[in-house]
Amino acid sequence: MSASFSRRAALKTLGGSALLAGVAPLSSARAAAPLQLKGNIKHSVCKWCYPNVSMEELAKAAKEMGIESIEIIGPEDWPIAQKYGLTVAMASGGGSIAEGFNDPANHATLIETYTDLIPKAGNAGLPNVICFSGNRNGMDDEEGLQNCVVALQKLMPLAEQHGVTVVMELLNSKVNHPDYMCDTTPWGVELVKQVGSERFKLLYDIYHMQIMEGDVIRTIRDNHEYIAHYHTGGNPGRNEIDETQELNYPAIMRAIVETGYTGYVGQEFIPTRDPLTSLREAIELCDV
Questions:
Q1: Is 233 left (phi over 0), alpha (psi -120 to 50) or beta?
Q2: Across-strand partners of 42?
Q3: 151-165: per-residue pLDDT in tens?
Q4: Which tens digits make up the pLDDT trace of 38-91?
Q5: What is the dihedral of CA 154, 95, 213, 142, to 10 degrees?
Q6: Strand partners, 202
Q7: Residue 272: which residues within 8 A CB-CB, separation 6 or more?
């Protein structure tokens, strides 16, 4: 199961908000003037959050807003993004959230899948491919970490050759992904250290880590060298990142910029209102 399919499954657990994203009119965001972005943040958007907006329509709207990437899409959709001059900041197409690198039973399939995906991403000029730890299923965290190290180290020469970073996502195991192993920053950082390659890092999902740990800005400042990518989302609810939720995104974005980060920030909230208007507002909020 692909990363995008995993997210579609998770979306069903979040109630009717995603449906609103699909039926709301899409004209209001289009009618607004182009955004005047500061250039300190490279903006991206996750396609799975817009299930009823076509890839073509989202790419066109993203280009008009000044967004530089559409992410969490597989090779079949990369040409559409590139048609509009967009990159894919985080490519998907390998493994699933629940069945990841922590289980040796998955290693042969995952290594084969990523051996195919990594060169494709490199040839397309894409910077990152996403991966997952998998669920614990009774496994000790240290055993799972070592299992991940064994498999990921086998992929690192290929990733280094093609200039592609394999990125494991930090997800919460309290609300959205029960039993997921890579659910804290210290576990993820230790994994990066043991894999020992600049081509393996973390996706720090701000929404997920707010649920698991809080202390977001301090964590980013202390661990930024191990992070290759960021995701947003309003908490609670994973909806708009505005005043309806508890995270202070402008402050978080300033902290990210201050670390010297030059990668992308992917909007991964599920709109409850006109989806492209909500996306535009999120880009404005995060453009510090």
A1: left
A2: 264
A3: 999 999 999 999 999
A4: 999 999 999 999 999 999 999 999 999 999 999 999 999 999 999 999 999 999
A5: -40
A6: 168, 227
A7: 17, 20, 21, 239, 240, 278
